[in-house]
Amino acid sequence: MILHNYDLYEDCYRVRLLASCTEQELELVNVDAFPGAEEKSETYLKLNPLGRLPILEDGDVILRDLAAILIYVAEKDAKARFIPTEAKARAAMFDWLGFACGDLSVATQARAVALLDAPGDGVALRAQARALFRVLDDHLTRQALSGQGYVAGDTATLADLALFPAFALSRDFNLDHDEFPALRLWARRMRTLPGFITMPGIPDYH
Amino acid sequence: MTQSGWVPVALSAMIEAGTSAGVVVDGAEIVVWRDISGKAHAWEDRCPHRGMKMSFGFVRGDHIACLYHGWEYDESGNCQYIPAHPDLEVPKSICISRYGVAETGGMIWAHVPLGSEAGAAPELAEAEGLRSLYVDASVAAVASALGSDVSGSMLTVSTADVALSIGVQPISDTQCALHVTVPMGTSVEEKNAVLDWCEALRRQVENSEAMA
Ligand code: FES
Question: Which one of B12, B14, B53, B175 would you mutate to disrupt binding with A, by most A Cβ within 10 Å of its Cβ?
Fold first, then answer.
């Protein structure tokens, strides 16, 4: 599998993290996204007319949607670790995956405004991201009551992996972790997953 | 208005051994951390080297290390190790100021302001921490919404047949944290009902702040 990658994009990190946790090789093609905007070059627009990263290529499969890429990589996991098979847990996983890839894109944007000169209203985006972190913190607080340490059960799923970068990188757009205690504990558990890797902005404690 | 005395800054259960968190009391930034042996510490949240927040750092045994350049501080706040100068005997003058710290009623407490003489900590009944609720409103606004008075940094409220003991942490004039604890042995259904109540309270108080 080839990942057209930019190291500082959290969406690319989401794919690298998943591949690492599922023990799959990714061939990285590094794209000069900032400041070069290479993903908007003629060559790249042919691969993805939306002019965005990440892009995943696997033989004749070309994927550009974050959720589609994540599901594809998770389904290729020989040990099928991160997509539950039981209907309820599976549905909950997809529910939170949608939250991670859709709603939480405001956090991705807030960070891009703060760090990478992207256009947008940084203050409003940060406020929206904060409201969403509260939703997630409330949810994980309830999960803990029934002994479940992750968003869709008692083990980490694809949704947790997709959610983790937004929280771990929020200090990049000046949103601190102080007021999300349940998220702090969850993020700490995520760090202990076999295959866990970091990216610039996420400290490696060891 | 800065109060003087013991203030709850976190639920005991939310600061696991070997972790740290940043908290704010009336604008003062404090790092709360628990060493590997389980002992809680509350210090000024500022590394003497270049001012990095110590709450961004990481705990190593009974030391806490700064994220920026790895300076390590022992439990008395003295810098013990500077990675860039591994053989240096670190001068005693490099140290972080500590707050008085106590644990009671399922919460970690710090004595504010920094440097104040810490009297005996409150003695509260054993309780189970349910959640810390961060609200965009002053302590006074929350207390008036609850129709209850804060006494010794605590509010007591009954909801869904559960008697809550709530530790109140003023963060700023527009923000506070409520450390909500329930009696030992509260059932899961009751706890869920209290969580409903918490979220509704936050909405109610913040909506009326927005109207004001
Ligand atoms: S700022 Fe803390 S070690 Fe440099």
Answer: B14
| β-strand pairing of A55-58 with B72-73 | unpaired
- The alpha carbon of residue A15 is apart from the nearest alpha carbon of chain B, in Å, by 26
Q: How many domains does chain B have?
A: 2
Residue range A2-76 forms a domain whose CATH class is alpha beta
State whether the beta carbon of B160 lies less than 6 angstroms from ligand 1: no
C-alpha torsion angle, residues A167, A169, A171, A176 (rounded to 10): 10
Residue with tokens 């060559």: A43
Query: Which residue, by CA, sits nearest to atom 4 of ligand 1?
Result: B69
pTM for the whole structure: 0.95
The answer as to whether B187 is a domain residue is yes
ipTM of the complex in this document: 0.94
Going B135 to B138 to B139 to B144, the CA torsion angle's sign is negative
Q: How far is the CA of B69 from the centre of ligand 1 (A)?
A: 5
Place of tokens 């070309």: A62
The tens place of each residue's pLDDT in chain A, 206 residues long, gives 999 999 999 999 999 999 999 999 999 999 999 989 999 999 999 999 999 999 999 999 999 999 999 999 999 999 999 999 999 999 999 999 999 999 999 999 999 999 988 999 999 999 999 999 999 999 999 999 999 999 999 999 999 999 999 999 999 999 999 999 999 999 999 999 999 999 999 988 75
Shortest CB distance from A178 goes to which of B19, B22, B188? Answer: B22
To the nearest 10 degrees (0 to 180), the angle between helices A158-168 and A66-75 is: 130
Last residue of a domain, one of B112, B144, B161: B112
